[in-house]
Amino acid sequence: MRTLLTSLSVVALAACTASEDVSAQTGDGESPPTEVAFAVEEMGTFDEPWAMTFLPNGILLITEKPGTMRFIDFAPDTPRLGTVSGIPAVDYGGQGGLGDVVPHPDFAENNLLYFSYAEAGEGDTRGAVVARARLDCQEADACTLQDVETIWRQVPKTSRRGHYSHRIAFGPDGYLFISSGDRQELEPAQDLSNNLGTVIRLNDDGSVPEDNPFADRGGVTAQIWSYGHRNLLGLAFAPDGRLWDVEHGPAGGDELNRVERGVNYGWPTVSNGEHYDGRPIPDHDTDPSFRPPAISWTPVIAPGGMIFYTGDMFPAWRGDVLIAGLSTNALVEVEIDGDTATEVARYDFDNRLREVEQGPDGAVWLLEDGENGRLLRLTPRG
């Protein structure tokens, strides 16, 4: 069931408690705890929501993993909830389904929308794709995707149903970045003949920029910007224009990484976690040829989406990373200082958090994970 609350009320109050799990952090020193209090408004419930984005006109788009995209228009007199039609068939199951959604940087002029999903292949196989389309919202209660075209695919498709990653981010220079998970296959993340376990960099039409690090090799290898990744569920640019990701480790070793051109991040050769069956994996510090994470977490936070907060509503968060925590049921705050990152606070919630986004006015929006996942709006308390 999906609902939109037309009469909003404060349903909970949350106050900051600094994380006690400082032993898992890396970097120099430890920032003092941040004290931020906020009110939480429940704005609706959705069916396994996965991602959200605000359009320049303030309309909010939300993807639901089974294959539906919803929109909310928060017009003060006539708020409305509707469905975006034209979504291709998704391969729903496990971690797969409809994924991320991001507008083109020039959306106000071209109405181009980018979205990711799991696509069925031949036999019992599947893989992530990214498509773009023109969004038409002329009707009062419905929007339509027109001229849908697939501009990127994971290669190869596999029989597994996890680690699609398929986060999308546009950089300040207009290039399109996509996180491509290792699909639970491990070794392909070190094999540049495929694009699993990588961060992809493309032009906005899906073509390959000539200055990509492996562009001269052609094929899917030319798409790769960085590699040696596992399952990257957060991808965001910092205010200084640098790209960061947050990704799941195995049993332990979740990571926050600064993503750089041509760099190998080590998975599955090194990790600060171990295999689920208990087999050890050499730690990052045993092999300096791989880039270590800015932070690794054990116990894990099981990260969902992430943002760099740039608004005015929460001055204490400005410039910091906010990460939606699945296993932690928490919003995790990380302070960035150059290449150093330090967790400074966790804000506890009742349920798993899948996604975080910043609203046009600087409010912070969260999506809970799972059936009847709530959409929450955070504003300063008092």
Strand content: 35-45%
Helix content: under 10%
Radius of gyration: 20 Å
Order of helices and strands: EEEEEEEEHEEEEEEEEEEEEEEEEEE
Total number of strands? 26
Helix count, DSSP H or I runs of 4 or more residues: 1
Major pleated sheet? 8 strands, mixed
Structure class: mainly beta
Point out poorly predicted stretches: 1-32
Basic shape: globular
The strands making up the biggest β-sheet line up spatially as 4-5-6-7-11-10-9-8
C-alpha end-to-end distance: 33 Å
Taking all residues together, what is the mean pLDDT? Answer: 91
Explain this structure to me?
- It is a single chain.
- The N terminus is likely disordered.
- The protein has a domain of 113 residues.
- The protein is built from one helix and 26 strands.
- It is an all-beta fold and 382 residues long.
- A hairpin with a 5-residue loop joins strand 16 and strand 17.
